[in-house]
Amino acid sequence: MKTVYRRLAIFVCLLAMLGMIAVSVAGTEAGVVSGRMNASANALADVPILNYHKIDYLQHALSLSPEEFDKQMAYLADNGYHTVSPDQLMAYLNHGKRLPDKPVVITFDDGYLDNYTHAYPILKKYGFTATIFVVTGLIGTDERFMTWDHVRQLQHEGFVFGSHTVNHVALDQVSLEQAKIELIESRRVIKEQTGQAARYFAYPTGAYNLQIEELVQQAGYRAAFTIRYGLAGPESDPFAMERIPLFKSEQSFRSFLIRLNGAPVIERLGLIRN
Question: Rounded to two decimals, what is the model's pTM?
Answer without folding.
Answer: 0.84
